[in-house]
Design a protein that fits this description.
Layout: H1 4-18, H2 23-62
């Protein structure tokens, strides 16, 4: 996806824009945001599976 030079360039630009003191806070916020997104995605997938599996379970119970 990204090459090594691309990541170095992005890191250098981020360092220039935000400074060395803000980078850890930004990364922490990014990590929390990604974990919340992953949690919401898993909840959505499980809800979809419950909706899809519900008619099959009712049909199996009636037989």
């Amino acid at each position: 996806m990204f090459g090594q030079m691309d990541l170095i360039l992005i890191g250098g630009v981020a360092l220039l824009l935000f400074g060395p003191k803000k980078i850890p806070d930004l990364m922490k916020g990014l990590g929390k945001g990604l974990s919340e997104f992953k949690k919401a995605q898993n909840e959505f997938e499980s809800e979809i599976k419950n909706v899809v599996d519900a008619p099959e379970a009712k049909a199996t119970n009636k037989e």
